């Protein structure tokens, strides 16, 4: 059973979102997602200052198995990306919820974050997928 | 990523896979291990030491009868007349009349354990039904018996230490296999059991493919585990064969692609010229006209991952990747591709709207534990 930290918000497409004290958000893919995808070998991150609408494809994770899109969980601007992943994509496998973060965004409307799934709902979603 | 369906078949080693914490997926109607934790680690395990694959889903056919050699010389693009030494193996394509590939296979000439002058053929699981229908149709009216050996399991043990560890695990029961040359097999059967050991594989490493009664597979798997052979999933099997430059049926070739366009010219025996085989006329014509495409290796220079079906742009026209991925041994992305015959040197590969730089190389990329590129 995958790890689902309670302090984070989640999307149906398996991104996690952490709200920082300055109102920005940090985004990554969940432990469940990395487990399904297998060993990561390349991660294509968005450009900083790029603007995305919720649901837009904004990054790509390539595992030994396949390429998968990562979607912007909210509408806003990318303010930072995790450069470490260029040389160490395996960080996403090892620590999906912390050092394996992918990018930070400044949300246009903070209210959008509240509409994302909480940990309990996300845990139910992946439990269903596993059956 | 689709969860394995409940109707999928299970090999005799299913319990062993679960015990080794395999991630099971549906593969050609079989519930098979894709990895046991890390595909990358499994890949390196085979290149550097020894790993084993459950390939019991593959189809073993024993073919006998007084017409068998004539029949196989007509059926296959390669010539079984080349393997009239007991135990000798041959890789061949099974072609249709247009020279397209129905399947690829390994065939062994057998002396012991079966009727005289018999052959053991191993074909792909995904093509089982169409292969059998085709082979049976071609065999009509000939004195040939085709036996599907679903009573057998198959374990491939591969890696630089694979043979030594297998000798330790299986002891005297495989004495007949110890001195085998590459691409030869030995029938190690005793009076009651079939045990067939071939020095063949699909990884570019030394090792054995062991065909044995299904009910003994578990015990032999456990003995190999105890000797330090680690279980390897289908995921690493694919990256190992890609590095070794070995074709995968359905990806690198299919019924619309001839062996001449799939890098498999060496497996088509045009001599002797009086041997008629299915697809010969079509291939001869292609050969005369000169094939428009050639089959090559690619190494990506930019960051990214080459994948099947990506478009290649060269000065001489477009091509397509047939198999691609990350090469754990090279630490770069590699691919097998079909490109215009005249293209050499550098090319571009279209990945998500961008054109990335790659260079055209002669495969294999890695063999016998080592990268063949710096």
What do these coordinates show?
- The complex is a heterodimer of chains A (131) and B (374).
- With 131 residues, chain A is α+β, with helices and mostly antiparallel strands.
- Chain A contains four helices and nine strands.
- Chain A has a six-stranded antiparallel β-sheet with strand order 1-2-3-9-8-5.
- The longest helix of chain A is centred in the last third of the chain and has 11 residues, at 119-129.
- The mean pLDDT of chain A is 95.
- Chain B is α+β, with helices and mostly antiparallel strands and 374 residues long.
- Chain B has helices at 14-19, 39-48, 68-75, 128-139, 162-170, 214-226, 234-243, 280-289; strands spanning 23-27, 30-35, 51-54, 59-64, 89-95, 101-110, 118-123, 145-148, 152-158, 185-187, 196-198, 207-213, 230-231, 293-300, 311-314, 317-327, 332-340, 346-351, 354-361, 366-367, 370-371.
- A six-stranded mixed β-sheet of chain B has the order 10-11-12-9-3-13. In chain B, strands 14-17-16-15-18-19 form a six-stranded antiparallel β-barrel. A five-stranded antiparallel β-sheet of chain B has the order 5-6-7-4-8.
- In chain B, helix 2 (39-48) crosses helix 7 (234-243) and helix 5 crosses helix 6.
- The chains are: A alpha+beta (131), B alpha+beta (374).
Please give the CATH class of the largest domain in chain B: Alpha Beta
- Number of H/I helices of chain B: 8
**What would CATH call the homologous superfamily of chain A?**
RNA polymerase II/Efflux pump adaptor protein, barrel-sandwich hybrid domain
Distance from first to last alpha carbon of chain A: 12 Å
Runs of chain A in which pLDDT lies below 50 for 5 or more consecutive residues are none
Gross geometry of chain B? globular
Q: How much helix, percentage-wise, in residues of chain A? A: 10-25%
Q: Give the class of chain A from helix and strand content and strand pairing.
A: alpha+beta
How many strand segments of chain A? 9
User: Biggest sheet of chain B, open or closed, and with what strands and sense?
Assistant: 6 strands, mixed
Please indicate the percent range of residues of chain A in DSSP E strands (runs of 2 or more): 25-35%
Q: SSE string of chain A, helix = H, strand = E?
A: EEEHEEEEEHEHH
């Amino acid at each position: 059973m995958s790890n689902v930290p309670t302090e984070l918000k989640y999307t149906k497409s398996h991104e996690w979102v952490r709200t920082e004290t300055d109102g920005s958000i940090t985004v990554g893919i969940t432990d469940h997602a990395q487990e399904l995808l297998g060993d990561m070998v390349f991660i294509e991150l968005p450009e900083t200052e790029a603007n995305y609408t919720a649901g837009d494809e904004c990054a790509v994770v390539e595992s030994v198995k396949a390429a998968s899109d990562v979607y912007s969980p909210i509408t806003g601007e990318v303010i930072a990306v995790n450069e470490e992943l260029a040389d160490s994509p395996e960080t996403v496998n090892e620590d999906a919820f912390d050092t394996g973060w992918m990018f930070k965004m400044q949300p246009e409307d903070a209210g959008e974050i509240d509409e994302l799934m909480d940990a309990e709902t996300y845990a139910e979603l992946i439990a269903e997928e596993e059956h | 990523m689709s969860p394995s369906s409940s109707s999928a078949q299970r090999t005799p080693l299913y319990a062993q896979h679960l015990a080794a914490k395999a991630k099971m997926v549906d593969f050609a109607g079989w519930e098979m291990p894709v990895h046991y934790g890390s595909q990358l680690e499994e890949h390196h395990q085979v290149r550097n030491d020894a790993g084993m694959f459950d390939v019991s889903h593959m189809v073993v056919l024993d073919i006998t009868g007084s017409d068998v050699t004539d029949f196989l010389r007509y059926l296959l693009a390669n010539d079984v007349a080349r393997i009239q030494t007991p135990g000798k193996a041959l890789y061949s394509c099974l072609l249709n009349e247009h020279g397209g590939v129905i399947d690829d296979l390994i065939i062994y000439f057998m002396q012991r354990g079966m009727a005289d002058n018999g052959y053991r053929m191993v074909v792909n699981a995904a093509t089982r039904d169409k292969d059998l229908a085709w082979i049976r149709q071609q065999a009509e009216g000939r004195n040939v018996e085709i036996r599907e050996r679903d009573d057998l399991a198959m374990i491939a043990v591969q890696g630089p230490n694979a043979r030594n560890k297998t000798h330790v695990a299986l002891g005297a029961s495989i004495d007949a296999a110890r001195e085998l040359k590459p691409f030869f097999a030995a029938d190690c059967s005793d009076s009651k059991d079939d045990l067939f050991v071939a020095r063949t594989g699909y990884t570019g490493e030394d090792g054995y493919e062991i065909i044995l009664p299904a009910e003994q597979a578990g015990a032999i798997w456990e003995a190999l585990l105890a000797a330090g052979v680690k279980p390897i999933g289908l995921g690493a099997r694919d990256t190992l064969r890609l590095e070794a430059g070995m074709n995968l049926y359905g990806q690198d070739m299919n019924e619309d692609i001839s062996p001449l366009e799939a890098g498999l010219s060496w497996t088509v025996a045009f001599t002797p010229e009086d041997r008629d085989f299915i697809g010969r006329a079509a291939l001869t014509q292609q050969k005369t006209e000169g094939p428009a495409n050639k089959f090559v290796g690619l190494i990506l220079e930019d960051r990214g991952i080459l994948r099947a079906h990506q478009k290649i742009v060269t000065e001489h026209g477009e091509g397509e990747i047939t198999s691609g991925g990350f090469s754990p041994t090279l630490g770069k992305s590699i691919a097998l591709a079909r490109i215009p015959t005249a293209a050499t040197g550098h090319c571009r590969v279209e990945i998500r709207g961008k054109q990335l730089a790659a260079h055209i190389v002669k495969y294999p990329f890695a063999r016998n534990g080592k990268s063949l590129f710096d």
